[in-house]
Design goal:
2 helices; rod-shaped; 58 residues; single chain
């Protein structure tokens, strides 16, 4: 469930960045890129946590 949330952040950020480009709004573009990066970081953290949990169970 959490992985979907991270991907949703990435997609929402990409949409915001694209809209910002279309409107010529640099602030919106930066916000969108930041949201994408936060989503990617969250996804990577969840993946790492999952790997740690998997290793400790075996």
């Amino acid at each position: 469930m959490m992985k979907g949330n991270a991907r949703t952040k990435q997609l929402r950020g990409k949409m915001r960045e694209t809209l910002g480009k279309a409107l010529g709004d640099k602030s919106m573009q930066r916000t969108g890129r930041g949201e994408q990066l936060r989503g990617k970081a969250q996804e990577m953290a969840e993946k790492a946590a999952g790997q740690i949990l998997h290793r400790t169970k075996h």
